[in-house]
């Protein structure tokens, strides 16, 4: 209950602080390339509930028809504005609305698309989906350069499924098993540090 209150208050403060910058980003996206400001995609949330995540659009509108759901290296589908937003994690700001809606938390395992969740081991799936997914978590911090790692692989999707995903799931399950206010504050602190000092 306290975690939910913390999430709501933090999301409201986040929207208050970043409201004007978000409007500026929205205008920048519209000027840079044709298409909607927001990217919406089905993700799997707490207890397996499917919801639509919101991000600032960082790719061309036909990105899903032109390639995999993974972003690999200097992906040609990423727009000029998108490269800046991704580098600074600004594309995630609209997820404050997902937090307010109750679909996400500030800190929690990053939500994945249904086709990947179906392939998770059953025991890890149950543990990871026991908590709300989050905007940031230990796994996303550790693998913040995931696109670069995938670009070095001969088969990026196999590398993701066989090497990166199991490690991310282990970190996500460990977070879910030991989540507390203090672990959340520590993750938030690390996330801010990464953004400020990367």
Q: Given the C-alpha coordinates, what overall shape results?
A: globular
Instruction: Please give the count of helices.
Output: 10
Write down how many β-strands occur, each being a DSSP E stretch of 2 or more residues: 4
Helix percentage range:
55-70%
Q: SSE order in H/E notation?
A: HEEHHHEHHEHHHH
* Rg from alpha-carbon coordinates: 16 Å
Keywords: Transferase
Pfam families: Bac_transf
Family: Belongs to the bacterial sugar transferase family.
Protein name: Sugar transferase
Features:
single chain, 198 residues, mainly alpha, two-stranded antiparallel sheet, two-stranded parallel ribbon, 56% helix
Structure description:
The protein is mainly alpha-helical. It has one domain. The chain is 56% helix and 10% strand. The chain is built from ten helices and four strands. The chain has helices at 2-32, 63-66, 80-87, 95-100, 114-117, 122-128, 138-142, 146-151, 156-178, 181-197; strands at residues 38-44, 50-56, 105-107, 134-136. β1 and β2 form a beta hairpin. The chain is globular and about 45 Å long. It starts with a helix and ends with a helix.
